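Subject: Protein record for review, amino acid sequence with backbone structure tokens
Why sent: The fold of this protein is of interest and is recorded here as tokens.
Notation: Tokens come from a learned vocabulary of local backbone shapes, not from coordinates.
Attached in line: The record itself begins immediately under this heading.
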Amino acid sequence: MRTSLTGPIQVVGQDVLATSTTALHNLGTYAETQDGRGFRYVKAVAATVAGKLYQCTPQDATNYSPAGGLAVAAAAIGATSITVTTSLTVTLNALAGGYVTMAITPGEGYTYRVKSNTAVAGAANMVIVLEDPLVVALTTGSKLVAVANPYSAVVIMPTSISAAPAGVSVGIIPTASFGWVQTHGPVSVLNSGGTAIGLSVTPGGAAGAVKTGATTLNDIGYCLNAGTTAEYQMVFLNID
């Protein structure tokens, strides 16, 4: 039986090994095969390699989430946009599909999905348009932090990890194209350090690889067969 995606979404416009230069699903869409393997829809920065681990969009700690957050203008309950008064450099709609929250009160703890944002270049007053209205009014004491959509620009997981794992590539997604990475169930992945059957694995050791579980990193799965350094093995992923 050919591998096909089914599950939570009713119609799959792009199958597991198919790619496209235009998005056919929302980034981050989750779908499953009939045997329970799970996949996330992503955009690749550079062409992906089968069996390598990829990470989410690296965080911009200067323009998106500096310590203490970004200053904002006051906004009433029900408003559908937020004006950031800190001077930033952000391209048009770089945050579209991403998320914002308030780091400190008023408004802390609520998550808002971003519909769009205006462009700023070393300037203040970027406007972030929200998918849903504000639940709590903001004041000039509120501080905003933002993240781009985690799946909007996945890159191979470097040795020095700079973002959360997005998934394992199961084929080639060309540069700046869209496709699926696996996040759940059995998958082939590069091992950077011999790992025994049943042991957990975490990212690291080599770019795009996994290694025996490390206490300083989150487990992303466990071994289905014994791993050998610099070779590929079967891992049961549990990123999702």
Notes: Residues 102 and 108 are 4 Å apart (CA to CA). The chain has no helices and 19 strands. The longest strand covers residues 178-191.
